[in-house]
Structures are given as structure tokens and as C-alpha cells.
Design goal:
The protein is an alpha/beta fold. The chain is 53% helix and 9% strand. The strands form two sheets. Strands 4-3-5-6-7 form a five-stranded parallel β-sheet, with helices on both faces. Strands 1-2 form a two-stranded antiparallel sheet.
Length: 324
């Protein structure tokens, strides 16, 4: 029988119907630190209503000014309502507006002690290649910083625990996300774990049918709405497997079937820098965090497996080596 779609559990993962909320339950998320606020706004703004976007954009662009405002003052400044301000604060991960004001004050203090970046990531068709390199390098750094700042380490730790103990791991991804799925599986294979990457939606579903409790299924989708990735994750979830979503949209449809949600940065797109580039950067960071975490948990098994794989390939990297 198909299970009911999971109910919201905190602002990170989702809880299965009837899941415990006491000790041992999935970790709840904490309000983001001041440094993570701007990254949180960039991640969630595309999925907000227009009125909530105005509030989010205001606090991100002028944290010092907004920190000095009451909830009524911020509502008047943004042409919204007090209720909208409070809803925006909660969507950003804060219990209420008071907590958001404290974070804004902290962010303002951090900004005053530093300098704003001198370059922009807008790339023109006639930009010199040196400018392209500088702009892309800055944008990649910003994407990684935003992802690291917004990544829920409690959710990450829970996903690592599940992966380290998994009988088998299936990873689903399409297009650029499919390349990231392959990267994760080859890493897991090299430390002796059983892992498969699926970019064919039919094979993904037929393999997901075989997953049970003790298995892990991971869906990688920047938009959070890729049907070919959501469908196998749903099947795996209904079969009892532990499910993980790596997505730039924490409110996306994929999270309905995810026990653990790992949010990536949603860097601004441009004509010459599509989402496939910016999303890949943040997804690879999350994948590396998962892999290192699993390798730490399974070090006694992982270290010999890595050594064996290095040794098996060593002759291919020796200067002047020839194949038989």
C-alpha cells in the first residue's frame, strides 16, 4: 500500500508518517547563522511569493537598516504586511522576526569589518578571457561559500550515517546532475561500498523497486521538480529505503519523498552561465562532503579499499609504462 506523503519535519528533511519526535528522531534544523542569511535568501527567493521576495531582498541588501526596524517598520518599507514579514522570517529559518533582527545585526557587523567584492559575475560576449576567468572564479567561490553556509550539518550527518551502513546505494540524476551522480557512485565504489548511478529514468524506477530498509536512494536535482528523478525516489521511499535529496529548492516536490534534504546554492544564472554550471559546483561540494563523511565513518574498511584501487591504477600513471 502506498504510504502517505511525508509531513514537514522542521525546515530540513521530512518525517515519515508516525515518525518519532523524541530522542533518536531525525535532527531538526537550527536558525541559520548571520553569515548564512544572504545565502538562504538567494536559495529561497525564487520560490517565495512576490511580497515575501520584497522582504527577503530588503533584509539581504540592507541588513543594518532593516535590523533597526520593527516588524511594522519593515512591513511599511517593503509595502507588505506584518504577517508577511513574520512568514518570511520563518521561511528563512528563524522562529520569529526578533531572531531575524538579531541575525541582521550580526550580518551588518560582519559586513562593516570587510570589503565588498570589486568584481561582478556578469559576463559579456566581448569580455577578454582574463575577465571571464576572474568572474567565473569569483562566482564559483561565492557558490561554494553560499552552499557551505546554508548546508544543514545535522541533515548531512544523518545522510552520512545512512550511507555508511547501507547495503546498497542508488543515485538518480539527469543531465548535469547525472554527472554528479556518477561522481558520487564512483567515490563510494572506491571505498568498497555498493553504489549505482542511474540517468535512465526507466532503469532508475525498475531498480528503485528493489530497494528496502537498509538501502539508500539519493536524488540530485537543482530545480527540485525533475520528474525523472522524483519518481524513482518516491518508489524507493515507499519501499522503505532511506531517501536523500540534494537540491537547490528546499520546498521542491522532491523533498516530499526525502528523509534528509541537503540544500545547494542557487547562484544567479546568465545567458553564458546556465544553471547546469552553477548547480554542478554546489552539488559536487555536497557530494564530496558526503563521501568524506562516509570514509571517516568506515575508515578501517575504506582505507584499504582506497589503497587497493590506487595500486590497481598505479601502473597507468607511471612515466613510460606500457600495457602488455
Amino acid at each position: 500500500m502506498t504510504r502517505e506523503v511525508k509531513e514537514t519535519f522542521g525546515s530540513g528533511g521530512r518525517a515519515r508518517p508516525g515518525a518519532a519526535s523524541g530522542p533518536g528522531a531525525a535532527p531538526r534544523t537550527s536558525p541559520p547563522a548571520p553569515a548564512a542569511l544572504a545565502a538562504k535568501v538567494r536559495t529561497l527567493a525564487p520560490s517565495m511569493t512576490r511580497s515575501m521576495q520584497r522582504v527577503a531582498e530588503a533584509v539581504a541588501s540592507d541588513p543594518a537598516g532593516c535590523a533597526a526596524l520593527t516588524v511594522t517598520g519593515l512591513a511599511e518599507l517593503t509595502g507588505t504586511s506584518e504577517a508577511t514579514v513574520v512568514r518570511t522570517a520563518r521561511l528563512l529559518g528563524y522562529p520569529g522576526y526578533r531572531d531575524l533582527r538579531l541575525a541582521l545585526a550580526g550580518l551588518a557587523a560582519q559586513q562593516q569589518s570587510g570589503r565588498a567584492p570589486a568584481i561582478t559575475t556578469d559576463i559579456a560576449v566581448d569580455d577578454p578571457i582574463a575577465d571571464v576567468v576572474a568572474k567565473l572564479a569569483y562566482d564559483e567561490q561565492q557558490t561554494l561559500a553560499d552552499t557551505a553556509a546554508g548546508l544543514d550539518t545535522a541533515q548531512l550527518g544523518a545522510a552520512v550515517t545512512a550511507l555508511a551502513a547501507a547495503r546498497r546505494t542508488d543515485v538518480y540524476g539527469i543531465g548535469a546532475s547525472g554527472l554528479v551522480a556518477q561522481d558520487l557512485t564512483q567515490k563510494l565504489l572506491r571505498i568498497g561500498l555498493i553504489a549505482h548511478a542511474h540517468s535512465d529514468p526507466h532503469l532508475a524506477v525498475t531498480n528503485a523497486v528493489q530497494l528496502r530498509a537498509g538501502d539508500v536512494a539519493i536524488a540530485i536535482t537543482h530545480s527540485g521538480s525533475t520528474t525523472d528523478v522524483i519518481e524513482p525516489l518516491r518508489v524507493a521511499f515507499e519501499g522503505g529505503a532511506t531517501t536523500v535529496a540534494i537540491t537547490g529548492r528546499p520546498d521542491g516536490a522532491v523533498t516530499q519523498y526525502a528523509d534528509h534534504v541537503l540544500t545547494t546554492s542557487t547562484a544567479r544564472e546568465s545567458e553564458l552561465r546556465p544553471a547546469a554550471m552553477s548547480s554542478r559546483t554546489s552539488q559536487l561540494l555536497v557530494v564530496d562532503c558526503l563521501f568524506v563523511g562516509v570514509a571517516q565513518r568506515t575508515y578501517e574498511r575504506a582505507a584499504p579499499a582506497l589503497s587497493a584501487s590506487y595500486e590497481a591504477l598505479a601502473h597507468r600513471h607511471r612515466s613510460g609504462s606500457r600495457q602488455p
